[in-house]
Amino acid sequence: MFKFIGLASFLVIFLVSCGGASKDVPNNNTAPTNLNVQVQVATDSSGNVSFVATATNAVSFDFDFGNGTMQTVPSGSIVYKYPLSGNYTVTVTAKSTGAQTAAKTIQVVVGVKLNIVWSEEFDNPGVPNSAKWGYDIGEGGWGNSELQNYTNRSNNSIVSNGTLKIIATREPYGTSAFTSARLLSKDKFSFKYGKIEVRAKLPANGGTWPAIWMLGSNISSVSWPACGEIDIMEHKGNDLNKIYGTIHYPNHSGGSAVGGTTIITGATTDFHRYAAIWSDASIQFLVDDTPFFTVANNNTMPFNQNFFIILNLAMGGTFGGAVDPAFTTAQMEVDYVRVYQ
Q: Under CATH, to which class is 33-110 assigned?
C-alpha cells in the first residue's frame, strides 16, 4: 500500500513538473508585442541619436534609420551618428525566435554641424593651383578604351571667371585624336569620412564622359580595385541628365560595380551640386542635397581610409560610348570643390 501511494505521488509530481516546464517554452509563432522605442537626440549638433527599443517576446531588432542605412541590433540599444541634418523616418522592427515581427515608425529631427576642412573655389585665374592639384598625363585608354590624351596644358585646364574649365578638344596628340585633362589631389590633399560637394556644369556632346570621383590613397601599394573607388558623379553625353553614383572594390568593380542613378534636369545647362556623404556605416550619393543612392560600408571594405579627389573629362570609351562625328570641343565647368567634416 505504501509502495503504491509513493509511486502515485511520484507520478503526480512528475506530471505537474512536466506541465510547468512546458509553459516556459517560448512560442515561436507569437509575434512581439508592446514594442516601445525611446529616442534621445544629442544637443551638441554631433548627429548622435540614442535608440532603445524593447518588446515582449523579441530577440532582436532591425533598425532602418531613414537614410538608407539599416542595422540589426540584438539588444535593441544603439547610438547612431547621422552624417547630415534632416527629418528622418525611422522604422524599428522587433523579431521573435520564429521570425514573427512587429514594427513601429517614428520621426527623428537631427541637426548636424559640418565645418569646411578643405576647399577649392577657383577664384584665382590662370592654371590650376599647383598646391592643390596635380595631373595624370598620357594616353592608352586608361583601362576603359578611352580616346583622349591627358595633358597639363592650359588648353585643357584653365581657371577663369571663378570656375575651372576642363576642356576636351578634337586634335591629334600623340597617337590620340582628342586631348583633355585629369586633375587630382593625390599627395596634396586626402581625407577620411565626411561630405564632399562639387558644383559643376557638364558637357552635352555625344561621347563626353565627365567624372567627379575619388580613389584610395594607398593605390600605389595595393593597386585598383583593392584601393577602392567612389564615383560621386558620372555622366554620358549620349544619355543626357542621367547621373551615376558608384563604388568599385574587389569583386565589385568595372561592370560589377555597385551603384545607382538619378535623372535631373539641366545637367548641361545649369550648375548642380554633386555630393557624397561618407561614413564608416554608409556612402550616400546626392544631387542638390537630394539623396538618390546609399550603400552600406563596413570594416571588410576599402572605404575606411584616406581618399583623394579626381576631376576629369574623358572621351568615348566603354562608358562614354561613340563620339559625335561633329564634335570639336566641350568642357566641364567646376565652380567649387568643398570637403566638410
A: mainly beta
